[in-house]
Amino acid sequence: MSITRELWLAIAVVVLVAIAGSVTIHGITTKHYVEEQLYSKNLDNASMLALTLSGLDKDPVSLDLFIMSQFDIGHYASIVLQKSDGEIVSEYTHEVQLDENTPKWFSDNFSPIVKPGIAQVSEGWGQYGTVYVETDTSFAVASMWRATKRLIFGLSLVGIFSGFLGGWALRYIIRPLDSVVRQAESFQQMQFIQLKEPRTLELKRVVRAMNFLATNSRKIMDEENTRLDLMRYKTQFDDESGVANRDYFISILKGQLAFRDTEGVNCLFFVRFTEGEGFLRSPANIRKKRIRDFVEEINDCLSLHHHQFTDSRIARMQKNEFAILLTETHDAVAISEAVHGACLSAFSDVGDPKVFQSVVKLRPDDSFSALLMRADAMIDEAEMLDMDEPFIESTLKEFISLVEQKRWEKELQNTIDECGVETFNFPVLDIDRNLVHYQSWAGVTIDGELRKSGYYTHWARYLGLLPQVELTTITSLINYINNTKTNSKFAFLCSEQFMLNPEILAQLYYQIGTNEKAAKQLCLEVRESTATRFPDEFRDFCTTLKAKDCEVGLKRVGESFSQLLNVQEMGLDYVKIDSAFMADIDFNPANHAFIRGFCSLAHTFGIKVYADGVKRSDHQELFIELGIDGVVSHIEVIEHLLDD
C-alpha cells in the first residue's frame, strides 16, 4: 500500500473517531442542557397553571375543562391535577411520538429525561391540591438530531478537505523520496545518477547516503575499466606507435581466416618505410612523435574512406613495417592509393624514409603464415624495384565497369523488392549447451547462387542499398517468427549505415511496434567499433529498442569497449567477444587475464558475455573459470531458409 493511501486511511480513521466522539460529546452535552431548560419550563408552566387554577372556582368539571384546553393548545406530555387527599381531578397524557427522520438509536441514547414541574393549587387560605406538568420532548430530540447531522456533515467536509490538503502536502514533502526510488531503480540498470539533497532532514540523510553509494560505485567501475584497458594495452599494443602489436594482429588475422565469411573481399595492406637518413636511430621522443603522426595520417585516411569497408585493424609488425586489415572492401585500389598518399604526406621532409606498400586479398584456403609471406614477398619486390606506387595483387585490380555496377544494383534491388532474403543461422549456446539464440546472417541469391553476406556487402554498401537489405532481412525474420510460432530468438548484426539511417530506423521501429511478440524474440547487434564511433546514435538506438522489448548486443567486442561512455546505462543485454581473443585461448595467459577481467566488469553491468570464434567443445571448464556465459557455435551450423 502506498504512503498516500495510508495517509487517506489514517485521515478516514481520524475523521470517523472525531465524528463518533463529537456526536457523543455533543449529544450528551445537549441532552443535559435540554433537560435543564425543559425542567425550568415545566416549573414555570406548572406555577403559571397553579396560579390560574387557584383563582378559579373549584368545580371539578370547570377545572377539567380548563386543564384540557391548556393541554390541547400547548406542547405537553402530561398535565395532572391531584387533590390533597390524593384524588385525581384531571389527568391528560399522550405518548411521545418521535419524528420519523430521527433514528431510534439516537432517541434511545440521547432523549432528555425531564422531571415534571410541580406547583401547589390553593383554595382560599388552604391547599386545594397539586398540579404536575411535563413538556413533550419529541421536538427537542428532532432538533438535536438535525444539529447532530449538521455536525457530522461539517466534520466529513473537514476530513475530505484535510485528506486532499494532506495528500498534496505529502506529495510535496516526499517528492525527494520518489527521486530516491528512481535513483535506486537506476542502480539496477547500472546508472549511477546523483540527486540534489532535499530540505527534509530524514530524506536528506537518505539521499546523501545514496549519492555516496553512486559516487563510489561509479568510481570502482571506472577504475576497473581503466585497469582492464591498461592491461589490454600492455599486452596487445605497441607503445611507440599506439597500434596493435604483432602477436595481437596475428590473433586477429587467425580469427579472420578461421571464423569470418571467406566469400568477402578482405584485404591485407603492408606498409614499409626505409631507414632514410637514420630515422630509426633518431632520439626516442622524436621518433615516437613522427611514428605517431604517421599512424594518425593512416587513421585519418581510413576514416575518410570508412564507407568502403566494414572493419579496419592496424598493427606494427616490425620497427619499420605496419599492417592494415580491411574487411568487406570495395575498390581496394582506391583505398591503397589513398593510404599511400597519406604515408607520403607523413614522410614528406628531405631525408625522410621512402614508403612502399603491398596489398593482397585473403583467400579461403590461406593460413596466416602463407598470407603474411605473400604480402611480405610482394613488399620486398616493391622495395627492390623501388616502386612509387602500391604493389597490388592482380585479383584486386579488376576494373569495375558501369555495366557491372548496374548488374549488382539490379540484383540487390530485386532482392529488396521481392523480399528474397534467406538466413544462415548459427546457434549461440550457453555454458550448458542450451540454446540462447541464433546468430543470423543474410543470404542473397546472386546469379542464381545463394551467397553469404561477405560476397555482396561491399557492393550493397557502395550502392547505398545495405540498410534496405538489412531491413528486408529483419522483416523476413519477423515473418518467420510469426508464421512458424517458434519460441527461438534470432540475433542480427546491423551495419553502421543501417544505424545512421533515420528513414530505415523509422521503418524498423514501426515493424517492431506492430509485431510485439516477434520483437521480444529479436536481438539486434552492432559492432563495437560502430558504437564507439557513434556513441550518441548508438545510445538512441539502444534506448528505443529496449523500450520495444528487443534485446540489444555488441559484436566483435574487446578492443575499444572501455571507450564506450556510460555503457552501463545503455541497457545492453549481451556482448560477443571478438574471435581474435579466442584464437590462442589454450596457451595465451594474457588473453585469459583480459577475458576474466572483462567478464567480471560486464557481469557487474548485468551484461552476458558470449565468445565468438570457438570451434572446440572441450573448453567448458576454462570458460566457466574465465566467466564466459556461452559461445557462438561454429560446429553445429543450422540453416533456416525463411521461404521454406
Describe this structure in words.
With 644 residues, the chain is of the alpha/beta class. It folds into 3 domains: 3-161, no CATH class; 246-396, 2-Layer Sandwich (Alpha-Beta Plaits); 402-633, TIM Barrel (Alpha-Beta Barrel). The chain has 20 helices and 19 strands. It has helices at residues 3-54, 60-73, 104-110, 138-173, 175-188, 201-236, 246-259, 284-304, 332-346, 368-384, 402-417, 453-462, 466-484, 496-499, 502-513, 516-519, 528-533, 535-547, 589-604, 620-626; strands at 76-83, 88-93, 117-123, 126-135, 267-273, 312-318, 321-326, 355-361, 391-392, 421-430, 435-446, 449-451, 490-494, 522-527, 551-557, 574-577, 608-614, 630-633, 638-640. The protein has an 8-stranded mixed β-barrel with strand order 10-11-13-14-15-16-17-18, surrounded by 5 helices. A 5-stranded mixed sheet has the order 6-7-5-8-9, sandwiched between helices. It has a 4-stranded antiparallel sheet with strand order 2-1-4-3. Strand 8, helix 10 and strand 9 (391-392) form a beta-alpha-beta unit. Helix 1 runs antiparallel to helix 4, helix 6 runs antiparallel to helix 19 and helix 13 (466-484) runs parallel beside helix 15 (502-513). Mean pLDDT is 83; it is low at 636-644. This is Diguanylate cyclase/phosphodiesterase. Residues 405-644 form the EAL domain. Keywords: Membrane, Transmembrane, Transmembrane helix. One of its GO terms (molecular function) is cyclic-guanylate-specific phosphodiesterase activity.
